[in-house]
Amino acid sequence: MSEGLLSLQNHCDQLDSDKVTERKKHIESFKRELNRTVIVQQLDHNSNNGRGLTWNAVFNSLISYMLKEIDHLKKQKGESSTSLSSKDRKKQTVGEVFKWFVRKANQRGEKLNCSDLLHHVLTLMKDDFSGIAFGEVCCSVILKDILRSRKYFCQISSSNWQELLKYFCKALRDPVQRTSHDVLSRIVRLILAGALKQSNVSTSFILTFFNSIINKFRTSERSATVVENILGSLNLFILTCASDLRTQLCKLGEDSIDNLLHVWKKYSTPAVKEEVVVFLRMQMALHHPKGVVTEEQGAYAEDFTVWRGHLKYLYDELVYNEWTKVNTRRKLKGVIGREIFKETDVDLAADICHQILCRSDSTADDKTPGINPDLNQSSNSSRYISQGGSAAKRRKVDSSGCSWEILLDMISIQTSNLIPW
């Protein structure tokens, strides 16, 4: 072993000293040695050949140092501002050393053992004290150094994928640490993508997670980034599992649409709205594969009354109201020509209109724009569908084609001849 590696080995051996001053002195020397190019090259060579002092051996010494520092911080009882400030600085120092070491070791290719690194990060996060002290650092390592590494991505075991997924889903749903929700949502999205490919995911757990977190969209403030990542994760899950979970996903959609329309109105960012549109298009495909209209043809809903109420609401909000706004903006800006719609938006509008206007027993509100009510309605041609807690009287729609013509005329006027079907 070279003189440089002998010196580094000596510092590693002293990192788990019971004396605070000794650990402080040797961690500084430890960092200096690792900043020397010759030491890094020798560690790389030994790690590649699997003999001598390796990056993994040095990592184990660093873990011992962290555990000693955590134990020391837990024992400190001072509550003065000076004492608390000192503890915060020590936490920051220890966390930064850990993150710095991981990137120093892996910046020329992954040298650290994936299983050991992941085990240490999860151990830190699951502990009440270290989870709060080093949660942000651990999330940064998972997000930037583990999940974005192709080598590590392939090396994570099935059980580790499931453990990661359950831990971070719970952390995002019921946050108890000071970790950024934006970061947690990005991690959940990447972990779910990996778990669906590399592991057997517990679908019941994931369905419960999404149902719970979507129900909180109305009551809890979340950034557009968090909402986008949650919906992106949900859409990935649906796309992967739709063939096996049609009934469960239809029920999830029926339970979630009101909350997602709240998201549509609240968040104006294109990325969030795009994820909502993707979700709704997949719900249309699940409920009405290939555009079928009736249950006999293959349509399915957990509750058709609820689902048809959602379709009518989607028509109001996403077809008529949104396209009217587009036409208004076009007029105010003095733009000549038609407003450009995304293909996915047009396809969703066409699917919704097809289901509302093609059913022989379709119903629509008196005030529904573009719907032609039968003015000679009899008592047995009326329906009552609960919307927003109150019963709204519905009138029978003429299915002879007149309603289609009215809607075609309205959309042609509102969107300068842009017709989705």
Number of domains: 4
Our estimate of the beta-strand percent is under 5%
The poorly predicted ranges are: 360-404, 414-421
Strand order of the largest sheet: 1-3-2
- What is the rounded Rg? 29 Å
Description:
There is one protein chain. It is built from 17 helices and three strands. Strand 2 and strand 3 form a beta hairpin. The protein is elongated, with a radius of gyration of 29 Å. Residues 360-404 and 414-421 have low confidence and may be disordered. Helix 12 (224-241) runs parallel beside helix 14 (270-287). The longest helix has 30 residues, at 304-333. It is 68% helix and 4% strand. Strands 1-3-2 form a three-stranded antiparallel β-sheet, covered by helices on one side. The chain folds into four domains: 1-76 and 88-105; 113-190; 202-283; 314-414, no CATH class. It has helices at residues 3-14, 20-34, 37-49, 55-75, 81-106, 114-126, 128-146, 150-155, 158-173, 181-198, 203-215, 224-241, 246-266, 270-287, 304-333, 343-358, 402-414; strands at residues 363-365, 383-387, 390-396. By secondary structure, it is mainly α.
Features:
three-stranded antiparallel β-sheet, 421 residues, elongated, mainly alpha, 3 strands, disordered C terminus
Provide a brief overview of the structure:
The protein contains 17 helices and 3 strands. By secondary structure, it is mostly helical. Strands 1-3-2 form a 3-stranded antiparallel sheet, covered by helices on one side.
